[in-house]
Amino acid sequence: MTLENDTPETPAEEAAPLTPEEEIAALKQAVAAETDKRLRALADTENLKKRLIREKEEFVKFAAEGVLADLLPVLDNLDLALAHGRTVAACKDVVMGVDMTRKIFLDTLARHGLDPCGQAGEEFNPEFHEAVGMQPGGKTPPNHVIQVMLSGYRLRGRLLRPAKVLVSQGD
Description:
Layout: H1 12-15, H2 20-61, H3 65-85, H4 92-111, E1 114-117, E2 129-135, E3 145-150, E4 152-155, E5 158-161, E6 163-168
Parallel strand pairs: 2-6
Antiparallel strand pairs: 1-4, 3-6, 4-5
């Protein structure tokens, strides 16, 4: 019994050795592939570095957000004291002191990036206002703020608390 194909198969590489030019071309191709990998790794590292820097800046920019949000009720109480104290003539000196304290407090918060938003007369914007009710506006155009019930605040452009407002529904 004879087998028709008794010769073992050999891979093409072993069958025909590479010429020096082919070997150089293969090595150049391998070097190019490794260079590409290295450049991609460097680009990924650079992108990661930029992202971490951006995230750190964002963190630093809004790190005081929690503290400032906790201070807003103090500001609200100063506003309430002024609103109620102005109706009593005997509280004139106290009202002046509270008003000066409120102004210093607001200036300090403004240096840290906090600014008020939501004023009477401006158009209602759900990004900055929270409507607590609607009522006939009289002279106020429809869909405009009639009264600010609770001031709103932004921290470096980011809404910290929306203003609670009454909105005009027109006549």
